[in-house]
């Protein structure tokens, strides 16, 4: 008898794991599946032969993977004490190169965005339970099989620990850890001006977070099936997005600094059905959940679209006109109430070109910029507007 149990790090059985038993002496192979408790067994095995046990599992690659996993890896790259266990290190190595780096972060975000179908490391890894691993040696010392040099009696405790690749929070559906984690669900609005468009109109749509306090990352997917020829015009640096079959999914994470800009996304496209934006846009939670993540891992914020009517328009920043420009350009913006506005202009390399503040009245406002006066040569620049704790930015181009 050769048998054992395959469980998560927390001892929960993983069912439907494919377990291969290779007889290295007779060059034969047989297979079985784990039951609902994670148990497997091969009852009849010739004594004195050599054997190799290899578990594997296929499923849905995105299962259990969220931008929260990205945040954990970002923190752990700077400080490996952020890993809860060596199995988290194995889960983080999605490119299977035995080094955790920013590449693993980007690959997970590409998976969330729907533009990476699978990881090089596969979907699951199964580590012999008797291996003595640490965070420091997890990648170099771990293996995914158990070898029996010569079977001389029944071996009934050949157990494995299952690791879902990319899932450091234990949210995969075959991992019951999430049953024991109580998460407080709060809500956070994604603000959109509820404009009306006729069929055939070309729409530019800006989406902003209502509040960025203590937010370190977010993810969501939009159903854009009522728009065509969609382009993503602007997102914060570090955002990974993908547009597949009319669904736009994105992931943003910054574990060090957190989210500093309310502006999340600007998209453009042709309207295929007349109506307000509230009729044309919706959150799609079928593949990924629309969530934002705080410094408290027990609190997730559910993202929801809030369509702003004309009488409750939020603080907005428009694209400079003209763009590109040679000499003078105008920056339009809207203030919902009187208040102080801070304007910064920076070059592509971060050099501060202009930094000024004004007290302005509510409603439509503009700033004028003179390229010669500010010493702006040909190139790409960024302008940022801050108002009442909110911040928006856009890109502009000077052509001499």
Description of the structure:
Helices cover 10% and strands 43% of the residues. It is built from six helices and 27 strands. It has helices at residues 67-78, 86-92, 102-112, 138-141, 277-280, 371-374, and strands spanning 2-7, 18-23, 28-33, 39-42, 51-56, 124-128, 146-148, 160-164, 184-193, 196-197, 202-209, 215-223, 227-234, 240-244, 247-253, 263-271, 275-276, 282-283, 291-294, 299-308, 316-317, 328-335, 339-347, 352-360, 363-370, 379-387, 390-398. The strands form six sheets. Strands 9, 11, 12, 13, 14, 15, 16, 18, 19 and 20 form a ten-stranded mixed β-sheet that branches. A four-stranded mixed β-sheet has the order 4-1-8-6. The chain has a four-stranded antiparallel β-sheet with strand order 3-2-5-7, with no helix packed on it. A hairpin with a 4-residue loop joins strand 2 (18-23) and strand 3 (28-33). Helix 1 packs antiparallel against helix 3 (102-112).
Summarize it.
The protein is mainly beta and 400 residues long. Helix content is 10%, strand content 43%. The chain is elongated, with a radius of gyration of 27 Å.
Overall radius of gyration:
27 Å
The computed structural class is: mainly beta
Distance between the termini: 80 Å
**Shape designation:** elongated
Count of DSSP H/I helices:
6
Helix content: 10-25%
User: Strand tally, please?
Assistant: 27
Strand residue content: 35-45%
Q: Main beta sheet: strand number and arrangement?
A: 10 strands, mixed
Subunit arrangement of the protein:
single chain
Q: Report low-confidence residues grouped into runs of 5 or more.
A: 175-182
Average pLDDT number: 91
């Amino acid at each position: 008898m050769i048998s054992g149990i395959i469980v998560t790090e927390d001892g929960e059985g993983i069912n439907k794991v494919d377990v291969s038993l290779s007889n290295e002496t007779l060059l034969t192979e047989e297979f079985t599946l784990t039951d609902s408790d994670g148990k497997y067994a091969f009852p009849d095995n010739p004594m004195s032969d050599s054997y190799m046990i290899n578990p594997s599992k296929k499923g849905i690659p995105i299962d259990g993977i969220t931008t929260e996993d990205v945040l954990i890896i970002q923190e752990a790259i700077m400080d490996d004490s952020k890993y809860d266990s060596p199995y988290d290190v194995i889960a983080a190595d999605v490119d299977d190169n035995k080094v955790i780096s920013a590449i693993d972060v980007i690959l997970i975000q590409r998976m969330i965005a729907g533009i990476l179908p699978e990881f090089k490391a596969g979907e699951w890894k199964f580590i012999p339970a008797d291996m003595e691993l640490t965070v420091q040696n997890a990648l170099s010392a771990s293996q995914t099989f158990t070898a029996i040099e010569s079977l001389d009696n029944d071996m009934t405790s050949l157990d494995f620990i299952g690791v879902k690749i990319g899932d450091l929070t234990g949210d995969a559906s075959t991992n019951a850890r999430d049953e024991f984690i109580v998460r407080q669900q709060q809500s956070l609005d994604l603000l959109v001006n509820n404009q009306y468009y006729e069929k055939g109109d070309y729409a530019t749509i800006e989406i902003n977070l209502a509040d960025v306090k203590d937010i370190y990352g977010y993810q969501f997917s939009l159903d854009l099936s009522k728009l065509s020829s969609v382009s993503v015009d602007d997102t914060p640096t570090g955002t990974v997005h993908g547009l597949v079959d009319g669904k736009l999914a994105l992931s943003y994470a910054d574990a060090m600094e957190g989210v500093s800009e309310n502006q999340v996304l600007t998209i453009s496209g042709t309207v295929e059905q007349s109506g307000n934006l509230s009729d044309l846009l919706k959150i799609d939670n079928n593949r990924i959940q629309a969530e934002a993540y705080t410094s408290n891992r027990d609190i997730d914020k559910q993202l929801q679209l809030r369509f702003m009517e004309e009488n409750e328009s939020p603080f907005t920043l428009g694209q400079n006109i003209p763009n590109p420009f040679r000499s003078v350009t105008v920056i339009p913006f809207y203030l919902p109430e009187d208040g102080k506005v801070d304007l910064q202009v920076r070059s592509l390399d971060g050099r501060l070109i202009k930094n000024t503040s004004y007290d302005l009245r509510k409603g439509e406002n503009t700033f004028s910029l003179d390229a010669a006066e500010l010493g702006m040569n040909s190139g790409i620049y960024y302008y940022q507007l801050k108002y009442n704790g909110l911040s928006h930015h856009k890109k502009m181009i000077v052509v001499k």
